[in-house]
Amino acid sequence: MISTPKTDMNRELHVGMLFKSIEEAECCYQDYGGSMGFSIKKRLTYKTLARSDVTCVAFSCVCEGIYKEKSSSIVGKQKRRTSTIKSGCNARMRIRWIKEIEMWKVSVLEDEQNLALVTPSKIILMKSQRRLPTAAKSLT
C-alpha cells in the first residue's frame, strides 16, 4: 500500500486508512510525525488471550504523559538527566486488525501537540527519525 517515503509525506493520515502490516503503519506514522515535528514511539499492543494474536497497536508522541517527581530516599544521590521531557502531549494513533479484510485500520488519530515542534533541519536528530535505507542496511 505504501510505496515510498516521498508519497507518505504528501498523503495525510486519517481515521479509516488501511495498512497491510504493523510495520507499514508505524513507518507511515513516523513519517507523519517527522513532517509535523515530533518523534513517536510504539505505546502498547493488545493481544487475544486464546491465540496471542495482536489485535490492536497504539503509537504516541515520545512526550506523552506527565512527569511525576520521585522523592529520593538516599541522601546525596544525584538524579539522572533524561533527554525526553514528558509534557502531556496528546498526539497518538491506534490501529486495529480487521479480520474480514485482513488489514490494519486506523481507529483513533489525534494530532494535538502541546510542545515546541522540531524544525525541519533538526528532524534527523530525533530518535524515531534515524533510519537507514534498506540499501544501506544490506551493505553492513
TrEMBL record:
Q: Where is the FAR1 domain?
A: 29-118
One Pfam family in the UniProt entry: FAR1
Q: Which InterPro entries has this protein been placed in?
A: FAR1_DNA_bnd_dom
Could you tell me what this protein is called? Protein FAR1-RELATED SEQUENCE 5-like
